[in-house]
Write a structure and sequence with these properties.
Blueprint: H1 2-15, H2 18-39
Length: 51
């Protein structure tokens, strides 16, 4: 998600398309939050492991 957000940021910046820029920022932010939660050991989106 973070990589897709960065790609959209770059494309939106180079092509001058504001909606791609906005979507890219949102994807990077959400991806970073989910990555941090996963790194801290929290269950993200209800995923639990029972082994």
């Amino acid at each position: 998600m973070i990589v897709l957000g960065i790609i959209l940021l770059v494309i939106g910046f180079l092509m001058g398309i504001a909606i791609l820029w906005t979507i890219g920022i949102v994807l990077v932010a959400i991806g970073a939050i989910l990555w941090l939660l996963g790194a801290m050991g929290h269950a993200v989106a209800g995923r639990k492991h029972y082994w």
